[in-house]
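DUF4190 domain-containing protein, pasting as requested.
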Amino acid sequence: MSTEIVQANHTEASTQPINRQALVAAAMAVVALVGLFFAGMAVIAIFVVGAGHMALNQIEQRGERGRGFAIAALVVGYGIGVLSLGSALIFAFTG
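Structure tokens follow.
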């Protein structure tokens, strides 16, 4: 009987839509990573962090899926921010 409850909860969770903001945040994180290495567009990381936090808030309120996408976007966004800050400090003290 307990397996039926677990299976019923699993199917209910899988029918929830994926939060679009989380998908947008993940896509922007990919663009920010590519831009970091090729075009110097690391500024997009600021928007990635904002979209990731908005997505987590929406997911919690609406009960949608996509938490992993939002967290991955936040990790990438904050990581690029830390790298950018570190490189700016190195440039400031050595230049």
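Note for the archive: The chain has a mean pLDDT of 86.
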